[in-house]
Amino acid sequence: MTRQIYLHRLKEALEGLPREEQESAMRYCEEYFDEAGEDQFEQAVHDLGSPEEFAKGIRSSYNSRMNADQKEHKNWPWPLILILALVACPIWVPLAAVIVILLIIFGFLLCLPFMLILLLLFLFFGLAASLLITAVRMIFVSWASAGLALGGMLICAALFLVCLCGLITLIKKVVPWAKVKVQEGYEWIQERRSQA
């Protein structure tokens, strides 16, 4: 193998690497061959290995340097981040407060139907219980008043049962929806963590 053939094969084997890496490897080989001289060329080729082996070593060295550079870039400059966070306080503190307030309002609005139905349940239960007690007390005074109180108690009991059915239906609709949304949020967080 001649010097020209070796360098040509090396150039082909180095394709895909950045231009400066290719030029650096080619320069190194040329200088190595110049120092060895014509009479020691075979020994120099033996020391360097085949062009493909030499290119493989260059690629390996380049990849390890790139991986080391990427690891260095992954280390966060925490003091700088802390300083930027302190400088940006006038912006992000009010923004965070607004976001928290909006989340509280959204949670309140989400829970509002449950609270209204629970309020109606307690109201109708209390009315039914008080009308039942009134009906029992009125039996000895006036049958008509006792019947009226008993009728009101039955109406309140029916409304209580309607509200209870409404609450159960609402729970059956909201709980699966909430499970899906929580699962989607969890998957989104996991996806962001895997990308970081």
Automatic annotation (TrEMBL):
Superkingdom field: Bacteria
State the name under which the record lists this protein.
DUF1700 domain-containing protein
Q: Which terms are listed as keywords in the entry? A: Membrane, Transmembrane, Transmembrane helix
Record's Pfam families? HAAS
Transmembrane ranges?
80-108, 114-136, 148-171
**Which organism does this sequence originate in?**
Holdemania massiliensis
